[in-house]
Amino acid sequence: MRTPAGLQPLIDDGVIDEVMRPLKSGKEASVYVVRVGEEIRCAKVYKDMAQRSFQQRVQYQEGRKVRGSRQARAIGKATKFGRKEQEAAWKNTEVDALYQLVDAGVRVPQPHGFFNGVLVMELVVDADGHSAPRLGEVELSPLEARGFHRFLVHQVQKMLCIGLVHGDLSEYNVLVAPDGPVVIDFPQVVSAAGNNAARRMLQRDVNNLTLSLGRFAPELLSTHYAEEMWALYEAGELRPDSELTGEFEFDESVADLDSVQLAIRDAREEALIRQQGREAAEQDD
Question: How far is C-alpha 19 from the geometric centre of its chain's CA atoms?
C-alpha cells in the first residue's frame, strides 16, 4: 500500500520497515499494521485536533502537567501555540500512561516507542493471528462474561492504584486476545487525585463494562465495584491485591444514589453515541 505521510519519516529512519495495511481510523488517530524486522506491530498516527475536539476535552485536561508556565498560559488562552502544545500533551499522555501501566502490570499493548508523533506498539491478535476483535464484537457465555468482568475490574483497580483513571473505557476500548482482554486507547486518561471528575469517570468506566458484560451475566448489573474501589482509594487503603466484593453501602443522606444513577445513564447514552458513530464511520468507509 501507499505509505501514509505520517509514517514515511519512520521508514526513512529505519524505525519500521513496511506499512502493511490500515487497521482502523477514528477521529483521534489512524492505526496501521507495520512490519519491524520479522515482527508485526501497529503504528498509531495521531490526527490534528480540531477546535471542537479541544472543547470536548476540557474535563480531561484538569490535573495534567505541562512543561512550563508559558505552555500552561498558552493552553489556558487557547492560542495557536497553546493548541499546538495541548495537542503534543494529548499525544504524550497516552505514551506516558502506557509505560506506567505496563510497569504496574496492567494488560495493555506493549509500547515500542514514540517517534515523530507516532506511537509504535504491540499488535493484539486473535488465535489465528488476525487483529483481535473488540469486546463488543464477541459472544460470551455467562461464565466467560463473569471472568472477563472480574479481570477488567482488576485492571481498573491496578490503574487506580497508580493514580490513573482511563476516562473513556467501554467495550470499544477492550480487545479480546486468546489469553484474555487487553485495554487500549489512553489519550484521555486522567489523574485520579488531580481531576475533580475522576470519581465520576471511574464510575462511568466500570458501569460501561458492567452494562456490556451484564448482557451475558445479568447478575453483574447489581454490583458496585467502582464505588467500593473509590472508597478504598480515598481512604488510602486500595492495593492491587485488595479483594473487592462488588458490594457497597450507599450513604443516602448525601444522595449518592443520584450520582450513581446519573453515571449509569451517562454510560448508556455514551454507548449509544459510540455505536451510532461507529455505524456512521462504517457507512463512510
Answer: 25
Report pTM: 0.79
How many DSSP H helices and E strands does the chain contain?
9, 9
Q: Among all chains, which residue has been given the C-alpha cell 505541562?
A: 66
pLDDT in tens, 111-151: 999 998 899 999 999 999 999 999 999 999 999 999 999 99
Number of C-beta neighbours around residue 136 at 10 A: 17
Please, what is the angle between helix 198-213 and helix 256-284, to 10°?
Answer: 60
Beta carbons of 152 and 174 less than 8 angstroms apart: yes
- Find the helix packing angle between 225-234 and 256-284, rounded to 10°: 120
Residues forming the active site? 168, 185
The x, y and z cell numbers of residue 103, run together, are 510497569
Report the b/e string of 197-211 with b at 16+ CB within 10 A. Answer: ebbbbbbbbbbbbbb
